[in-house]
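User: Show me a protein chain along with its predicted structure.
Assistant: Here is one chain, sequence first, then structure tokens.
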Amino acid sequence: MIWVDSRYRIGTAANLNNKSGGNKSAFALFGGVRTGPISWLAQAEYIDDKSVQEGTTVIGQKQLASLVEANWLIARATT
């Protein structure tokens, strides 16, 4: 789900995979804002992976991931 405006955007994302080898799920929040020629983007994600195995034992893994970036508009394209 995402809300978009000319100055900002904010949204969520989810992914659920249920398999016999183990379940994997990921949930994310992301957003962006424009400040003049620079667009700022950020995302935070939580991942729960129960498909990671060690031998015959499912050990699972939980992760947090994040990203922040800035994109600079140097020049507009002309046609």
